[in-house]
Design brief:
This protein is α+β, with helices and mostly antiparallel strands. It is 23% helix and 50% strand. The relative contact order is 0.14.
Amino acid sequence: MARKLVSGLIVLIMLVNASAQPAMSAGILSSAANETRTDDPPPTPDPPKPKSEKKHHHSDCDDCDDDLGNAGIKLFGGMLALGALATANAAIPQRRSVIYTHDSGQEETIVLIGHPGYFSDYPYQYDFGYMLMGDEWYGVGKYKSVRASVEYASDFSRLSRIGTKLLVEGNRRWGLDTQWDEYFENVPGGGTDQLTLGDINVTLRYYQGYHGQLRFGLGANILADTNGSEAGINFTGSYDAYIGKPWIWSTELDLGKVGSADLFRFRSTLGVHWKRLEAYSGYQYTNLEGVELNGFVSGLRVWF
């Protein structure tokens, strides 16, 4: 009798596991990819509203959702307005003449077009910040800046990520920014799932100074997995603060679409540098239509 009971329990457990397997195999990455390929259902007419206190409360919640949606639209519109101002500021060239003294002592009058901002070889090369503001730095600072990084992130559960970032900028404020993340997930039902999420943006420095730079940009998001790829528009904003040698605080915001899904990403890191190398750590929050791909970040950045 006992053997039959044990055998029955084993069979029951196996049946339960077998029935739960399809649901468990749909992990976080699979859910995120599915959100990008799911169109919103057509709107349905509202049913008649009975005069009851409970229904009135539900209507208030709908009003709250509308308010949140309107706030998001206003935020996005404000970011676009700042980006337009940055574009106009960068599009108006400044023409001026400077007297440059060569190493031999000979002076030369040079006509410069553009904004008087240059780059150090690396942060705190001259014991303050990164950018060199003013024509007195002509011939000392660089016309372009390149920084590349590789990082690892984990939620200390079943989701991990390997990421790469690249930012190329010129002294006329224009730049190119890209980030590519490869996600890995230990699926509850067994096995490993994988997903690629990246973006590429054209950026403009809206503000630049010795101790900080603020950028806005517009570009595209791309998602790819074994079932195909999806794309959408992206708006980005980032700020680097050189808060004191050897510390660098970097923050970035992305807002856009991937396929049919809304994408929101925010990251903030604190780094310590030595010459051209920076080691940093922080946190990245990624929300893809309600599916969160978050994790603590640690990485290494090289300044060229």
